[in-house]
Automatic annotation (TrEMBL):
EC class of the enzyme, as a word: ligase
Highest taxon, organism lineage: Bacteria
Lineage: Bacteria, Pseudomonadati, Pseudomonadota, Gammaproteobacteria, Oceanospirillales
GO BP terms in the entry: folic acid biosynthetic process; tetrahydrofolate biosynthetic process
Record pathway: Cofactor biosynthesis; tetrahydrofolate biosynthesis; 7,8-dihydrofolate from 2-amino-4-hydroxy-6-hydroxymethyl-7,8-dihydropteridine diphosphate and 4-aminobenzoate: step 2/2; Cofactor biosynthesis; tetrahydrofolylpolyglutamate biosynthesis
Record has DNA damage as a keyword: no
Gene behind the chain: folC_1
Stretches assigned to the Mur ligase C-terminal domain: 162-286
Pfam families named in the record: Mur_ligase_C
InterPro entries for this protein: Folylpolyglutamate_synth, Mur-like_cat_sf, Mur_ligase_C, Mur_ligase_C_dom_sf
Protein name per the record: Dihydrofolate synthase/folylpolyglutamate synthase
């Protein structure tokens, strides 16, 4: 906060690290507050139901300020809290919506003055479409004048490190994605299904307190081989711990497992055994992707 005060930027975008209501970032009263989705994550801290988690996330909303939720099925606790404090709630498919068609999409919602806005034939973004739609609504509710041309340009150029990030591992296509909960794993699975089919090797490393079993179930991939890695962090799961989940969640893949001591070891092995005909997917945690990025971008 001191840095922002000293540099006085025009716009500050702050990401809540955990939940919302009790997160340190929540000391700031934002002009626009956004809950992208509500999924089962950080349950030790936020609760073990979507209602409990939704209430915690809704804690970032402010009275008389725009409060956006991009979840297609927002918990009633989130809606109730927004209404109880007098926030101006904007919900996906009620206040703003999208329609996909022939490789493009349309957006419809409202601006800060309450006028209806339609953006037609938008190019597909590199980011999840539901998040792009929510971001457009946030932009139009901000106190800044942003033109349609600016929005179109931003949607085309926006990217996020570690989210369907395309790199190369020698001759092989290598995709990095930080998917670490069931919702993000399902998105990854869907995004990969839209790519041309290739024999796929998955490098998976996860934190032990994540819902590993449900992530495996959500990763409905046609995987040629799994490369399980240990993460060298206090919360990190070992490769052997990950292996144990395959007995219940993916028993038909037990003969497709190789255990590695860490991410670099797995990628080194794959670089020596795969060709341009293969695809490598690195997923499961920010830690996993960070280690992969360091390996893939090192001189």
């Amino acid at each position: 906060m001191l840095f922002f005060t000293q540099t006085a930027p025009d716009i500050v975008i702050l990401e809540v690290g955990l939940g919302g209501r009790l997160d340190a970032i929540n000391i700031i009263d934002a002009d626009v507050s956004i809950v992208t989705t509500v999924s089962m994550d950080h349950m030790d801290w936020l609760g073990d139901t979507r209602d409990a988690i939704g209430f915690e996330k809704a804690g970032i909303y402010r009275s008389e300020k725009p409060a956006i939720c991009g979840d297609l099925n927002p918990p009633q606790t989130l809606v109730d809290h927004a209404q109880s404090i007098g926030a101006h709630l904007f919900l996906r498919n009620l206040d703003f919506s999208i329609q996909e068609k022939d490789g493009v999409w349309d957006w419809k919602g409202r601006d800060l003055q309450g006028a209806t806005v339609e953006l037609l034939d938008l190019d597909m973004p590199a980011l999840p479409l539901q998040n792009a739609a929510t971001a457009v609504q946030a932009i139009l509710l901000s106190p800044f004048s942003v033109t349609e041309a600016h929005i179109r340009s931003g949607l085309c150029s926006a990217s996020l490190t570690g989210r369907m990030q395309m790199l190369r591992l020698n001759d092989s296509e290598c995709i990095l994605d930080v998917a670490h909960n069931p919702e993000s794993a399902a998105y990854l699975s869907s995004a990969l299904s839209k790519l041309p089919p290739k024999p796929t090797h998955v490098v998976l490393g996860m934190l032990a307190d994540k819902d590993i079993g449900e992530v495996l179930r959500a990763l409905r991939l046609d995987v040629e081989h799994w490369h399980l890695v240990s993460l060298d962090t206090p919360r990190g799961a070992t490769a052997k711990q990950l292996q144990a989940f395959f007995n219940d969640c993916a028993p038909n893949h037990l003969d497709k497992l190789t255990l590695h001591s860490d991410v670099p070891s797995a990628l080194t092995y794959l670089s020596q055994h795969l060709s341009e005909q293969h695809r490598v997917v690195v997923a499961g945690s920010f830690y996993t992707v960070t280690d992969a990025l360091a390996y893939l971008t090192s001189p």
